[in-house]
Design a protein that fits this description.
By secondary structure, the chain is an alpha+beta fold. The chain has 9 helices and 8 strands. The chain has a single domain, classed as Jelly Rolls (Sandwich).
Amino acid sequence: MHDKLLTYARSIHDFSTAEMEMMKHYFEPVAYSKNTVIEKEGEVPGYLYYIVSGYMRLFHLNRNGDQVTTHINCPPGFFTSYSNFINQKKSLENVECITACELLRITKKDLDAFTKESASMKDFSIHVFQESIAYHEQRSNELSSLRAEERYRELLKNYPGIIQHVPVQYIASFLGMKPESLSRIRRKLIN
């Protein structure tokens, strides 16, 4: 399971053989079944996850008790409630495996130890968190500047496999619309 993480890490930064072994040591393989909440709101996120396979989402409940999906991730990539994980603060979001997931996970304590032991891991971690910030800024811009259909088209362009693996209600929530609106947009695009 570590091969995908090692390949991804090497594509971003140079790691020595010893550092690759350290990565295998620090990242624990885990598997979860579909619809499993692995981090709960009101708790400090325990792990940073690398998605080997499967789809995950961040969500919270709004004032009406409805689930609001704030982030969907597909493999490969890292996933957690980032700012809460980094700052070790209670999260307002849940981390859920939408599909069965194979993951590699690391605790904040182990991530800190690894980045102290390895300059390459420190640089790689900075890169991962910078990409997360850039992604969230782009997403914020899209939500505020694109029409609903444009947001859906962008999602399909960037993540074409998402439709086959993620329920429509999660995609609609993620795109800031009702499932009925997304269904209308999908019908329009098919016709």
